[in-house]
Design goal:
34% of the residues lie in helices and 24% in strands. The protein has 18 helices and 29 strands. Strand 12, helix 9 and strand 13 form a beta-alpha-beta unit.
Length: 567
């Protein structure tokens, strides 16, 4: 039986009662601090404000922001109402936001003003021009019929938008009656969080996660790190990913610990926060840890308080893992494996596993989750040591993809097994290793990129007749997208012109790093494009030494073998 059956809103109130005066949320760069009780007051004020402007149980509320304090306030306020928090990638631009708001049937969008070089305000006013003429809360958008409100996360006022300060002030002056009714009627199996993950069909799919999924998964993730209420987690990973939401927030909440938050990753700020707040744990993808270890001011900081954490998202070089253990004193660092659809973790190493195990495996299965490795062709369970597709079944499996029953049926079979699309092995001691992937997915420094989405976008450019995107080895990120492009007769664009178009409409991390202009693609005898040949061509054209990227080659070897067999 999993750890708890309480829905998130009720579980949060239970932890508030237990840990009232303990620090829950800390922002060390501005010395902003809230105890569990203080943060709960903030959550209740926002929840009542949202109810007042028409947010009801089951409504979809988007949050498009970096890790600002009110990202966390919205996550618990919507959970108490029974609304669904829809997380929006901070790197998204107009092309992706338009799809997500429409596909999710979003009723309310909460947003900050900008992220790096992208003005969220400009994008939203461009997509929803009615904001400038319609009363707040009475929005009638031609493009987004479900969208009724936009909330600016901050104190500034913008035409057609509420701001969080107004909603909280409003909430503080409203009775608790309606909110108490909502909390009492919460159900653990109702969707509480929806995260969008890219799919091979092109556009992202909304993964519906319940309280039962994420609260329990967070608890077991924390257990593998031996978390207690004394732990203080430095979190520089984004909250819109499960890495931040489940591995971070839920793992700390279920153990009554403290979140030491950073709005976005900065290696210097991570190290300063660890020292100032005496953090015991830190999370990150390998490139984050490498940036910290290689920072010229690294030796100035005190890591003596550190003990554990998680390094995940992409393969970790063994030397980096060892340096993290010794130089950063994170002697109980763990690694985890999963996918958003699994809430997300179903295997993880333990803080007391030997260092070699933590560096070379993704650990053992978490409690209360069934795992099997099957032959992708026959569905038969594979013997020990034989590669096959990783599948899991249990409390952690998503409710499905929002409004995509056919895609849901492809991911979760009739017996309830979630198929990961990743290849792995199981050894005699119960440890799992990832050996490759079935999906034609690119992992850029922990960010999943699906070629089909990029290919579909490139085909919207009038000059381009056809485009194929593959993963290209990269020393910093593991791999990056490379695009092979065929132009229409008599048409052409420079690489710089295509890059400019991509940057205007798509998240920068997705945009191809390399472009190759060709007349034709290599084909099989049946006319299918040989992507393994395109990968080889990219390495040859860029003069990349494959032996320098062993981990990447191992991860892509399975799909390459399958493609060769098809030819």
């Amino acid at each position: 039986m999993p750890f708890t059956e309480l829905p998130l809103g009720q579980f949060f109130e239970q932890m508030v009662a237990q840990q009232q005066d303990r620090e829950f949320i800390v922002y060390p760069d501005r010395n902003a601090r809230w105890t569990y009780a203080q943060f709960n007051e903030r959550v209740d004020s926002l929840a009542k404000g949202l109810l007042h402007i028409g947010i009801e149980p089951g409504d979809h509320v988007g949050i498009w922001a970096k890790n600002v304090p009110d990202w966390l306030t919205f996550s618990f306020a919507t959970a108490k109402i029974g609304a669904v928090l829809v997380t929006v990638n901070t790197a998204y631009k107009s092309h992706e936001l338009e799809y997500l708001v429409r596909q999710s049937d979003m009723k309310c969008l909460a947003m900050v003003d900008r992220f790096r070089d992208t003005s969220y305000l400009d994008i939203v006013y461009e997509l929803v021009p009615e904001l400038k003429t319609h009363p707040r809360g009475k929005l009638c958008s031609e493009r987004f019929p479900f969208l009724k409100s936009v909330v600016y996360v901050g104190q500034e006022k913008f035409r057609g938008m509420y701001n969080t300060s107004e909603l909280m002030l409003l909430g503080r002056n409203l009775p608790d009656t309606r909110l108490r009714e909502c909390v009492a009627n919460l159900d653990k199996d109702n969707v509480v969080n929806m995260q969008y993950t890219s799919g091979t069909t092109g556009f992202p799919k909304g993964v519906m996660l319940t309280s039962y999924n994420i609260v329990n998964n967070g608890y077991y993730i924390g257990e593998r790190q031996h978390f207690t209420c004394e732990d203080r987690l430095c979190l520089p990973v984004p909250m819109f990913h499960c890495f931040g939401m489940t591995l971070g927030l839920m793992a700390i909440l279920t153990h009554g610990g403290t979140m030491v938050m950073l709005e976005e990753f900065d290696p210097l700020l991570v190290m300063a926060s660890i020292q100032k707040e005496r953090c015991t744990a830190v999370y990150g993808v390998p490139t984050m840890f490498i940036a910290e270890l290689n920072h010229p001011m690294f030796d100035m900081f005190d890591f003596s308080s550190m003990r554990t954490g998680i390094m995940a998202g992409s393969p970790c070089p063994i030397p980096t893992m060892k340096e993290v253990m010794t130089k950063m004193n994170i002697r109980e660092i763990t690694s985890a494996y999963g996918l958003t659809e699994a809430a997300p973790v179903f295997t993880q190493t333990s803080a007391d596993d030997p260092p070699e195990i933590r560096a070379t495996t993704v650990g053992k299965g978490l409690p209360e989750i069934e795992i099997k490795i099957v032959d992708p062709e026959t569905g038969e369970t594979c013997p020990l040591g034989t590669p096959g597709e990783l599948c899991c079944r249990g409390y952690n499996v998503m409710k499905g993809y929002y409004n995509m029953p056919e895609e849901t049926a492809k991911a979760i079979d009739q017996d309830g097994w979630l198929h990961s699309g990743d290849m792995g092995t199981l050894d005699k001691d119960g440890y799992y290793r990832i050996t490759g992937r079935i999906k034609d997915m690119i992992i850029r420094g922990g960010e999943n990129i699906y070629p089909k989405e990029l290919e579909d976008f490139l085909l919207t450019i009038p000059e381009i007749r056809d485009a194929q995107v593959v993963g290209v080895p990269n020393e910093r990120y593991g791999e990056v997208p490379g695009a092979f492009v065929i132009f229409h007769d008599g048409k052409s664009l420079s690489e710089e012109e295509i890059v400019e178009i991509c940057h205007k409409k798509m998240a920068r991390y997705k945009c191809p790093k390399h472009f190759f202009f060709v007349k034709e693609f290599p084909l099989t005898t049946s006319g299918k494009i040989q992507k393994f040949r395109l990968r080889e061509m990219a390495k040859e054209l860029l003069n990349i030494d494959s032996t320098a990227f062993t981990n990447l080659e191992e991860k892509s070897s399975e799909s390459t073998i399958q493609e060769k067999e098809m030819s």
